[in-house]
């Protein structure tokens, strides 16, 4: 089980989680080791461009929503370099990124299930 699997478990339990992901697939939106806050999400309210923590084909990613399929209750997940990870169902989208290094992400209002999506768990 990887570090993001543990974060997904905490989000599924209703916690808002602060952590520092590593990697370059989301540059410049998220740089390696920047602090992010991810809160539980209502996946039916997501938009293209939202950054979410989701499980796709057995792997957990902190990546972008690149397409929506509301009729089938699923979203497509991609990195910020054009690689599509695949489609996943709403129940496998655990959280939405609400801040990166203390800067609140735009268009997140009303999407989080957490009462205080700026806190830590």
Gist?
With 121 residues, the protein is mainly β. Helix content is 8%, strand content 38%.
Give an account of the 3D structure.
The chain has 121 residues and is mainly β. Strand 7 and strand 8 form a beta hairpin. Helix content is 8%, strand content 38%. Strands 1, 2, 3, 4, 5, 6, 7 and 8 form an eight-stranded antiparallel β-sheet that branches. The protein is built from one helix and eight strands, in the order αββββββββ. It starts with a helix and ends in a 17-residue tail after the last strand. It has one helix spanning 3-12; strands at 17-19, 36-40, 51-56, 59-69, 74-78, 84-89, 93-100, 103-104.
> Please, what is the average pLDDT?
93
Question: How many E strands?
Answer: 8
Q: Show unreliable segments.
A: none
Helix fraction?
under 10%
What fraction of the residues are assigned to beta strands by DSSP?
35-45%
Order of H and E elements: HEEEEEEEE
By DSSP (H or I, 4+ residues per run), the number of helices equals 1
What is the rounded Rg? 13 Å
Q: What is the CA-CA span between the terminal residues?
A: 20 Å
- Tell me, what's the shape? globular
